[in-house]
Amino acid sequence: MSIRLPGVVTQSHGLQRFMLLLGFGLVFLFVFVAIFAPWLAPYDFNADRAGGVVFGTQQGPSADHWFGTTVGGTDVLSRVIYGARTAVEVIVLAVVLSGVVGVPLGLVSGYLGGWLDRVLVLVMDALYAFPSLLLAIVVSIVLSGGNSSAFGGILAAAISITVVFVPQYYRVIRNATLSVKAEPYVDAAKVVGVRTPRILRKHIFSNVSSSLPVIGTLNASEAILTLAGLGFLGFGIEPSAAAEWGYDLNKALPDASSGVWWTGVFPGLAIVLIVLGATLVGESLNDILNPLLRTRGADTSEADQAEIEREFDTLRSAHGRPQAASLGPDTESKTESSEEKRVAALSLTDLAVSFRTDAGQVRAVKGISFDVAPGEVVAVVGESGSGKSVSSRAVLGLLPSTAEVSGSARLGDRDLLGLSNRSLRPLRGDRVSMVFQEPATALNPVYTVGWQIIEGLQAHRKISKKAARARAVELLEMVGMPDPEERVGYYPHQLSGGQKQRVVIAMAIACDPDVIIADEPTTALDVTVQASILELLLSLRERLGTAIVLITHNMGVVADMADRVVVMYRGSIVEQAPARELFATPRHPYTRALLDAVPHLGRSHGPGLVDPGNDVVLRVDDLVVEFPGRLGQPAFRAVDHVSLEIRKGEVLGLVGESGSGKSTVGRTAVGLQQPTSGTIDVSGHRVSGLSDRQLRTMRSRFGFVFQDPASSLNPRMSIGQCIAEPLHVQTDMTQSQIDTKVAELLDSVELGGGYAERFPHELSGGQRQRVSLARALSLDPDLLIADEPTSALDVSVQARVLELFGELQQRLQFACLFISHDLAVVDTLANRVAVMQHGRLVEIGDREQVLGHPQEEYTQRLIAAVPVPDPLEQARRRAARATIA
User: Membrane-crossing residues (predicted)?
Assistant: First the structure.
């Protein structure tokens, strides 16, 4: 069976192209007419006698006067043509003046904040409170007194419209600046000492300016309407100085009652067409100018897959594995085990999904088949782009209209594929439900969590609001939410990440579904929260007999939960087997390489201690960092009297749960956050308490690798520009020297100089993180802060990035503060480990002592919560935890 999901992609693309051409055609027409008006108009716009017509009489459209004449004998066509010149001149002046004034004010106000921001917001809000046409009339009266020249009248009209538009530019740019200035790539620029003017120009303006074409064209439309309104009301340009369509419409009013239609229709039609053209152009310009839409024939997922293949080739060679001729399906792995086949709660047969693109069909899922029995947990594993999430969304009919789906997905005895949204709606949330990867985006921020649970209940059950609320409280209690009676009335932003995930699970189990599809349910959670979520899912399986499809790339979670494992690669199933069998004797090369790439806490042979005689690079002494509380609330202490030091060539792993203060320590060390008290020294120089200007000359001593490689690189700058920026700011190198250095840095992270011209979105996650590492090392820093640098990467790519990181650290001997919540990763890299909880340093020591024989109870709980990629060992750890509990 093949199903083509409803969509109008081809038609909508053709319509979009037509509208774009129409918009540009209309704009070009009016600009052309405006430039060549004196040559195109058959008469002067103000001639009282045209072609011998007697003053006071009117002619309809004729060969001599195509658009007829006015009551004064002037040619309507000539006035429309000269009116186009007036309109274009006013549009250009008004839009340019508004942007020149409003954009810089918005940038400075949003970026600097403080009293300047408060004053400008007050002024702009006051201007915005006036009705726009009334404000334009007042300004026009003030400016136009006694000025009868054409240019003076046009300039006065443009300025009167500019006063109306400036607050619009200001507000849009200020709000965009407030958002962009919090992006990691702005912090990355600050770390290397980029001055404020360059940050505003290269990092803020380049990313907020994408909205300007749309604002400008929409304002152009509004400018025409405002100018016409001024002219119609008699406050526009002096009639003897220039032709203007609004004035012509005013004079055409008496004609309408006497059947003379042409004097009003043609100026009005001109207004409609130029507004339509400007609006259509504005809706298309952003797509044309946006470099994020450029591709080189492959999308990011293809780049991810290409890198994954390279990493697995390296891993297979390193572990002595034989290379397979193909990573295609392993047909032997698909055979049934010796267990008796059971009735499936969910059965996929030859499920295939492809997407229509401009470049042709992209096959995302290639005929996969597997079953899930009642009460069984089947883990679907693989890396980004393998088709895990696409296949699950196909089952629920949640794919976009560009998708084409074939095969079968049977829920019990009913095939879900081919059902309309109307037919699927009663099944979603009732018989089959989904736990989405990111709970923050799965929950509606404007409704309480209780309301959202109740909404799902009432969609499938005839139940009163009171009973539904009681059921919502019961569900929250079932998923382990503290104080469910109170928190049922909380909004999502009032809950932690783990609590939001519990709400999403409560919504998924509200109607006791037969099947739960859990898509990366623990990816963004700390290990202790993750452990509790896994316990919850397993308890639901035991109590309700629910079948669970667990989609994940975390092999520790798979070892902890799964009964069977389905391994996917590039849209195909390459192996499926019982969990213990797969971990013990993986048959496919991809599965073996995948398991080899997973770090295992306690089994790595990490580095030993460095020479105690090495110079101290980072010294943190009694550091306290507090953030002011909200109105009436005390300050929040994020870091509480922390002291530590890192020597040359040493990696200190800083671990702990979210909110423990790890990242705040790292940001304070490089001057991105000022300490409340305490001191920080880098290479013997005091950096705490210094202003950005005082720190600028010292910023070459430290680098910073951010958690998210996508957001830490400016999307409007090429890879070469991103890496070169520290060199431009901190050195006197020539451009040719910088280009040579960039090529060397790209080679050092195994990318090659050819990547310099690419943009961040054209690279995979692992490639982007390598670029971030190259940028951080461009100035040969003494200290490197790495804040969760591998948490967003697939395991194979993570393995190679960690290996590369270790090689560079050994060769360059920089001191490193490696911040992470992944204890297995820290175990492979760190010489020493420090553990933080609630802002305090609870334990610090060499790696083997802290991770192998922890002294503090919190550290012991943290280590016990880490799932390991071994089902037998994980079962023993789970039993030990249950005994302790």
Answer: 20-41, 90-112, 119-143, 149-170, 260-281
Q: Note the helical H segments in 130-149.
A: 132-143
**For residue 172, which of 129, 128, 203 has the smallest C-alpha distance?**
128
Residues ≥6 apart with Cβ < 8 Å to 90:
154, 157, 158, 161, 223, 224, 227
Q: Which residues in 821-834 are b (16+ Cβ under 10 Å) and which e? A: bbbbbbbbbbbbbb
Q: How do residues 476-527 score in pLDDT, each as one tens digit? A: 887 778 888 988 999 888 886 678 888 888 888 888 888 999 888 876 667 7
Angstrom CA distances, 473 to 431, 503, 588, stand at 21, 11, 46
Q: What pLDDT shows up at residue 322?
A: 40
- HEC string for 32-97: HHHHCHHHHCCCCCCCCCCCCCCCCCCCCCCCCCCCCECCCCCEHHHHHHHHHHHHHHHHHHHHHH
SS3 617: strand
Give one DSSP letter per residue of 672-736, joined into a string.
Answer: SS--SEEEEEETTEE-TT--HHHHGGGGGGEEEE-S-TTTTS-TTS-HHHHHHHHHHHH----HH
Q: What is the torsional sign of CA 252, 254, 259, 260?
A: negative
Domain 33-290, CATH homologous superfamily name and number? MetI-like (1.10.3720.10)
Burial-class residue 365 by CB neighbours within 10 Å (0-12, 13-18, 19+). buried
> With 80 as the cut, is the pLDDT of residue 597 above it?
yes
Residue 596 CA, distance from chain mean position: 31
Handedness of CA 192, 197, 198, 199 (dihedral sign): positive
Q: 525 has which bridge partners?
A: none
What size, in residues, is the chain? Answer: 885
In this structure, what token pair is assigned to residue 193? 């000492």
Is pTM beyond 0.85 here? no
Structure-token pair, residue 860: 């012991």
Residue 438's pLDDT band (boundaries 50, 70, 90)? confident
Q: Provide CATH code, domain 616-714+779-854.
A: 3.40.50.300
pLDDT for the residue 548: 92
Over its C-alpha atoms, the chain yields an Rg (Å, rounded) of 33
What confidence tens digit (pLDDT) does each residue in 351-370 have? Answer: 999 988 766 778 889 999 99
Residue located via tokens 């104080």: 483
Name the residue among 687, 672, 688, 682 with its Cα closest to residue 624. Answer: 688
Helix, strand, coil percentages, rounded to 5, for the chain? 50, 15, 30
Q: What does the pLDDT read at residue 582?
A: 93
